[in-house]
Amino acid sequence: MKKIALAGYYGFDNAGDEAILAAIISSLRQRIDEEVEITVLSANPARTEKLYNVSAVDRFSLIEIITVFYQADLLLLGGGSLLQDTTSQRSLLYYLGLVYLAHKINLSVVCYAQGVGPITSRLGKSLVPKVLNSAARLTVRDEESKELLVKLGVRKPIEVTVDPVFNLSLVSEERKQEIITAESLELKPPVIGVSVRHWTAESNDYLSVLAGVLDRINHKLEGGILFLPLHYPHDLTASRKVKEQMETETKLLTGKYHPREIAGLFGECELVIGVRLHSLIFAAVNYVPLVGISYDPKVDSLLKRLDLRSAGRVTDLSATELYNQVLDIWQNRGQAEEKLRRKAVEMQQIAYDDIDSVRKLLKDRSD
Fold first, then answer.
1. Source organism's superkingdom (predicted)?
2. Considering only CA atoms, which of 257, 263, 92 is closest in space to residue 163?
């Protein structure tokens, strides 16, 4: 029986990263072996074990990590935006350290569906190629990530794949209705889903701009706004800041849920306006027309692959441009939904191909 260690930004109550974890675990069990032994490096091992029926260890315990690595057949790093130093240089060094440690004890490493960059520090630029050239396999979720790795000096073959969340299975209609009833989220249709986040203090004015646009949209469509936070509790605060500035009817999801449940709720919307990357992916896997507001190149990369354009950036969001793009998507929502359906199905197959390559690697290593 194969044993796989998973490392990423897991256990921090970020629905996007938790959805990545859920999708990877499900794909490993579907495409490799239902009985595959999975151990996750998590900031909250008990919750991770409960949510996903896996083993988990403290991501900050070196002794536990070394023990897991010695027992594993493979370290799968990813996906998500792990290899960047915008958040902090410590984060980048942590993940590179895991790859280096695995290499030293002869554990094969797959860097899986990574979103790479920005990498601005001299140390980061120096270490990334030195460490990643030891990986058995490298896949990234967009062309820009591949270009950056090549520019930094990574010589290993790099394949462009998609975010693992395109393979996330969704919960039943019954479960969604249970959540809607429990949280009193019923709204008059059409329901516009909204997912926001804080950015820098200078850029948070976009939340006020968004509040005004959402009121205009509500008046125009005579529906309701459903706020769907992804990073708990940070996005709750950002959502409330927008909500407090609005005059029209809104609802806010406040509880903690499995990422499959949160993703499923996006399917209850007729249109989604999202800042968080995975809010846009959640809309896409539900075939719900979407409008993206960019705060990071990864958002622009996703929109480009979906044949869409950004409605603006958090740093200089135009109310007029956002409003016009939302109305344009709404008025052509049938066409937008069909195009999204084709793209999502295509990306789902790419994600399956990526996990199948992991299966082949495991098989080759055991022969």
1. Bacteria
2. 263
Distance CA 25, CA 117 (A): 25
Domain 3-167+349-366 has CATH 3.40.640.10: no
> 3-class DSSP state for residue 249?
coil
CATH fold for domain 173-346? Rossmann fold (3.40.50)
3-state secondary structure 71-137: HCCEEEEEEECCCCCCCCHHHHHHHHHHHHHHHHCCCCEEEEEECCCCCCCHHHHHHHHHHHCCCCE
* Burial of residue 271 (number of CB atoms within 10 Å: 0-12, 13-18, 19+): buried
Helix residue spans in the chain (DSSP H)? 15-31, 45-52, 62-71, 89-104, 122-132, 143-152, 173-182, 206-221, 234-244, 259-266, 277-285, 297-305, 319-331, 333-366
Report how far residue 247's alpha carbon sits from residue 212's, in angstroms, rounded to the nearest whole number: 9
Token look-up 């949280």 returns 183
Residue 86: the pLDDT is 82
173-346 matches 3-167+349-366 in CATH topology: yes
Q: Which two tokens stand for residue 131?
A: 């460490």
Radius of gyration of the chain (CA): 20
Q: What pLDDT score was predicted for residue 205?
A: 87
At 107, give phi and psi (nearest 5°): -100, 125
**Phi, psi torsion values for 57, nearest 5 degrees:** -130, 165
Query: What does the alpha-carbon distance between residue 291 and residue 148 come to, in Å, rounded to a whole number?
Result: 27
- Which residue stretches of the chain have pLDDT < 50? none
Residue 87: predicted pLDDT:
76
pLDDT, residue 204, reads 60
pLDDT at 78: 84
Q: Angle at CA 161, nearest 5°, toward 231 and 329?
A: 60
Q: 203, 315 in Cβ contact below 8 A?
A: yes
Name the strands in the sheet holding 250-252, side by side, starting at the edge strand that comes first in the sequence: 250-252, 224-227, 191-195, 271-274, 290-292
Would you kindly state where each structural domain of the chain is located, as residue ranges?
A: 3-167+349-366, 173-346
Token pair listed for 330 = 């709404």
Q: What's the pLDDT tens digit per position in 71-93?
A: 999 999 988 889 998 878 899 99
